[in-house]
Amino acid sequence: MYRISVDRSLCDGYGVCEAIAPDVFELGDDGLAVVRTALTEDEAVSEACASCPMGAITVARAEAA
Question: Of 12, 18, 37, 65, which sits 20 to 30 A from 57 (CA to CA)?
Fold first, then answer.
């Protein structure tokens, strides 16, 4: 299980995260990334985090509830 967050002050809206993990990320009306679900088992979030050109995504392992 992964806990995801986006620092919207760093996000420039490239959309790489949404392209890699569309079930987890989307671009909001303002063009910046929004986390659709803060907890996920989608392993693509690690790639999305590593691919973010602004370093705006944080992914941490979380214990399943």
Answer: 65
